[in-house]
Amino acid sequence: MMAATKRTAFGVTAAALTLTALAGCSGAEPPAKQGAHGAKRVPAAAPNGPVRLIGDGSTAYTGAQPLQPLPKKLAPGEKPPQFVVFSWDGAGEDSQRLFSHFRKVGQRYNATMTYFLSGVYLLPEAKKNLYDPPQHSTGRSDIGFNDVKGIKDTVEQIRGAWFEGNEIGTHFNGHFCGKDGGVGTWSKEEWKSEIAQAKSFVKNWKSNAALKDVKPLPFDYEKELVGARTPCLEGRKNFLRAAAETGFRYDTSGVNDQVWPKKRGKLWDLSMQLVPVPGRAFQTLSMDYNFYMNQSGAARGDESKHAYWGNQMRDGLLQAFERSYRGNRAPLIIGNHFESWNGGTYMRAVEETIKAVCTQRGVKCVSFRQLADWLDAQDPQVLAKLRTLKVGQAPKTGWATFLNPAAAQPATHVPGGHAPAASSAERH
């Protein structure tokens, strides 16, 4: 069990924005039967090749990660997939067993996810002085540390999640927020120190927790770690500067509308998004905590309203999904925590959302890393064209024309002859 209750707070609780109308149903695709969108993912039970231990054996080289899709460039006129990313901040396994539960949910509905691990969840309380947080005393953490059983359980879940194709990112360590030494006040060099320590706790949990007989994590964390979400979505400016120098490929610490992403410097900006709050005249961040904050002030609210609040979050996420799915096809980014706020109603909402969207035709529920891989494989001109579409806006002339300029040109008249034949890609 975690040694301390996780503290989670976010600077953006609600945005007073007019609710964007959902796009029409033109070009809608019928729902697929459950599982029909792709072959069911079968997790690898063990490494395919030899295991080569790294350092003290906390991590190891085990070969390429299983179950990774091969990113393909869109063909001219091809409709983009509808990507949905479910992610978890501060991922760890405690007595609630939510990490292990959502691994099963992911397998059931073919959803690959990103788990942002807090490094201190692999550091025992007895060794807390190994953590030297920027602008705070040694051994300080606003989310506490772990005990040996909690570390062992968390390692087991991380290992299994990776073999199932999921990504292991970072939520850093002490989760410091606010003006008094919070991450928003940290310099680039302080961020680099925090990143290095987060890696160190993952690479040395065996020694730190005296768990020599536990199997290693099956990856080299120096290569595995390519993305993050900062605590409270703070400190992004200097974090990006540090991340660009430490091998990161994306960041998801910003706030954006449901539009196609672009790069900020060297990193993909895969920000959290503003989504509808059904029955209210504003949008909020696509995260369980923000619905919790708006509904009951981040405190346990009236139990008679718990079911309604969960339904409100689920329906808001589904409305956000529909306006992308039938509109601009922008990736939908959703963030969560392994918490039972308001009786676990938000966990139910997320699970019902996964079930509803990841079984739809043309939908790919992927990790952030997989989304970044796909974005990197596309022509920059195609991505730029996609970014011209606003929230919920589908191409007026349809995808076949919008992403295939040649299809929009009138046929060339050949005197005494015939127009050129359509290529196989243009025939319907």
Feature tags:
alpha/beta, TIM Barrel, 31% helix, disordered C terminus
Number of domains: 1
What's the gyration radius in Å? 23 Å
Question: CATH homologous superfamily?
Answer: Glycoside hydrolase/deacetylase
Report the order of strands and helices: EEEHEHEHHHEHEEEEEEHHEHEHHH
What would you call the structural class? Answer: alpha/beta
The name CATH uses for the topology is TIM Barrel
Distance between the termini: 57 Å
Count of distinct strands: 14
Tell me the CATH architecture. Answer: Alpha-Beta Barrel
Mean pLDDT: 88
Q: How many helices does DSSP assign?
A: 12
Written account of the structure:
This protein has 428 residues and is of the alpha/beta class. The protein has one domain (52-408): Glycoside hydrolase/deacetylase (TIM Barrel). The protein is built from 12 helices and 14 strands. The longest helix has 23 residues, at 306-328. It is globular, with a radius of gyration of 23 Å. The model is unreliable at 3-39 and 414-428 (pLDDT under 50).
Task: Describe what is shown at a glance.
With 428 residues, the chain is α/β, with parallel strands linked by helices. It has a single domain, classed as TIM Barrel (Alpha-Beta Barrel), CATH 3.20.20. It contains twelve helices and 14 strands.
Q: Helices, strands, pairings?
A:
Blueprint: E1 52-54, E2 59-61, E3 82-91, H1 98-108, E4 114-117, H2 148-163, E5 167-170, H3 188-203, H4 205-209, H5 221-224, E6 227-228, H6 236-244, E7 250-251, E8 255-256, E9 263-264, E10 267-269, E11 272-276, E12 283-285, H7 288-296, H8 306-328, E13 332-337, H9 341-357, E14 363-365, H10 368-377, H11 380-386, H12 399-402
Parallel strand pairs: 3-4, 3-13, 3-14, 4-5, 6-7, 7-10, 8-11
Antiparallel strand pairs: 1-2, 9-10, 11-12
Helix pairs in contact: 3-6, 7-9, 8-9
Keywords: Signal
Organism: Streptomyces cremeus
Protein name: Lipoprotein
